[in-house]
Amino acid sequence: MNQRIDELLEKYWEAETSLAEEKELRRLLQSAEGYADEKALFSGLSALSAEEPNIKTPTKTIPIRPRNWIKWAASVAILICSTWGWTVYEQKQAEQEAYMEVMQAFALIKTNLAKGQEEMTPMNDLKYLNTTNQLFGNSIIK
């Protein structure tokens, strides 16, 4: 009996047993002494097979209707996001253009201010004169 169990176990570990031989191996292991590891293995397998749920295939199939509103909602969301992005881009471009115009105006003011200061240098020489008569070279005789 132990020799038959050994033969069946060897075939079992080599994956060469049939279902009938596996049933015979289980029956022989229950009545034999020893083989504690193999007995635990087969009892664990029996417990697992008892716990497996019965999977039933559905008898009625429910047709899935296309949800066109999801496609429309996605299209509207993309449109809104792209419009918002475009307006933000345009606003940034307008701000950049306004900044450049202000900088050009400041450069023009600086240039004209420098020209005006250059023309004021002869007037700075005249500030040391005391009277208007000295300015025009007229003297009033008293």
Offer a concise description of the structure.
This protein is mostly helical.
Describe it.
The chain is an all-alpha fold. Among the domains are: 2-51, no CATH class; 87-126. The chain has helices at 2-13, 19-31, 36-51, 68-126, 132-136. The chain is rod-shaped, with a radius of gyration of 52 Å. It starts with a helix and ends in a 6-residue tail after the last helix. The mean pLDDT is 80.
Secondary-structure map with pairings?
Elements: H1 2-13, H2 19-31, H3 36-51, H4 68-126, H5 132-136
Helix pairs in contact: 1-2
Features:
about 140 residues, mainly alpha, 5 helices, about 75% helix
Instruction: Work out the helix count.
Output: 5
The unreliable regions are none
Morphology call: rod-shaped
> What is the number of strand segments?
0
